[in-house]
UniProtKB/TrEMBL annotation:
Keywords, comma-separated and alphabetical: Cell inner membrane, Cell membrane, Membrane, Transmembrane, Transmembrane helix, Transport
GTP-binding in keyword set: no
Superkingdom as given in the UniProt entry: Bacteria
GO biological process: one example: transmembrane transport
Gene Ontology CC entries for this record: plasma membrane
Protein name: Putative spermidine/putrescine transport system permease protein
Segments forming domain ABC transmembrane type-1: 66-252
Gene3D superfamilies noted in UniProt: MetI-like
Parts of the chain that traverse the membrane: 70-91, 103-121, 133-157, 190-214, 234-257
Subcellular location: Cell inner membrane
Species of the source: Serinibacter salmoneus
Membrane topology: Multi-pass membrane protein
């Protein structure tokens, strides 16, 4: 290995380590607060240790809030992934002559401020009488669609349509051709797209509060309400770190499932 290549690798490792440290730095005091009974300035470590934050988080409804967040995120993932993949199929294989308007409409939930989208949808909700949980589910699905559609569009663009055509020529039906020929080539991108949809729903606060009317208490909603008060630092730290666990576990699972050589049926990037 040449000295230049070793230097580049060392710089890459140092840069990645510095970036990870920068991202993890705010978590250090939070990690200290989850076992702190009392921690006042200017002490560098808690003066008293305990599990008060865990008790208060449990009494505040952390368990049910996490359950609602999980159900909502899984429902959004189940809806947004196939819908977004269908749009990605149209865009990736250029099945429409005018992809620009499709992409523009697709990006509207991202380009518009979430508060404006939530308030506008809330006005429609009042007139239609749609239940708040259903409205939150619909709006979060729309918010996740751009990420799923654009991720899968890139995957479809790299996957030649001839794979499905060859499977059909060998006697496979449309569903068999999709499952046996296309799905293995698209598996990685579909997993990443599903992860993005899950993260959009799991981390949402604005839409759930405004459209849900404060009655759909998810983990971010509970965290925001307690963080707005004073004297709740230990409880807020417990909720914040607990809410990090499902996304991190899912991220690790997706990373493990997508590890390995790229399928030969997928076109390599230029």
């Amino acid at each position: 290995m040449s000295s230049g290549r070793r230097a580049r690798r060392a710089l890459t490792v140092l840069g990645a380590g510095a970036a990870l440290l920068w991202l993890a730095l705010p978590l250090f005091p939070i990690a200290g607060w989850i076992l702190a009974e009392r921690w006042s300035h200017p002490a560098l470590v808690p003066q008293e240790w305990g599990v008060r934050g865990w008790r208060e988080a449990a009494s505040a409804g952390l368990g049910p809030a996490l359950g609602r967040s999980l159900i909502l995120a899984l429902a959004v993932t189940a809806l947004a992934t196939p819908l977004g993949a269908a749009i990605g199929w149209v865009l990736g294989w250029r099945l429409t002559r005018h992809p620009g308007p499709v992409i523009g409409i697709l990006l509207l939930p991202v380009l518009l401020p979430p508060v404006a989208v939530a308030l506008g949808f809330d006005a429609v909700l009042v007139r239609t009488g749609l239940p708040e949980p259903v409205a939150v589910l619909a709006l979060l699905t729309a918010a996740a669609l751009p990420y799923v559609a654009l991720t899968t569009a890139v995957a479809f663009a790299r996957t030649p349509p001839i794979l499905a055509e060859q499977a059909r020529a060998l006697g496979a039906g449309p569903m068999q051709a999709a499952l046996r020929a296309l799905l293995p080539a698209l598996r990685r991108s579909l997993l990443v797209a599903a992860l993005l949809a899950f993260l959009v729903a799991w981390s949402d606060y604005v839409i759930t509060v405004l459209v849900g009317g404060g009655r759909l208490v998810t983990a971010p909603v509970l965290l925001g309400s307690l963080a707005a008060g004073s004297g709740n630092t230990a409880t807020v730290a417990v909720i914040a770190l607990t809410a990090l666990a499902p996304p991190l576990l899912l991220l690790g699972a997706v990373a493990a499932l997508t590890r390995g050589p790229r399928p030969t049926t997928e076109r390599s990037s230029p």
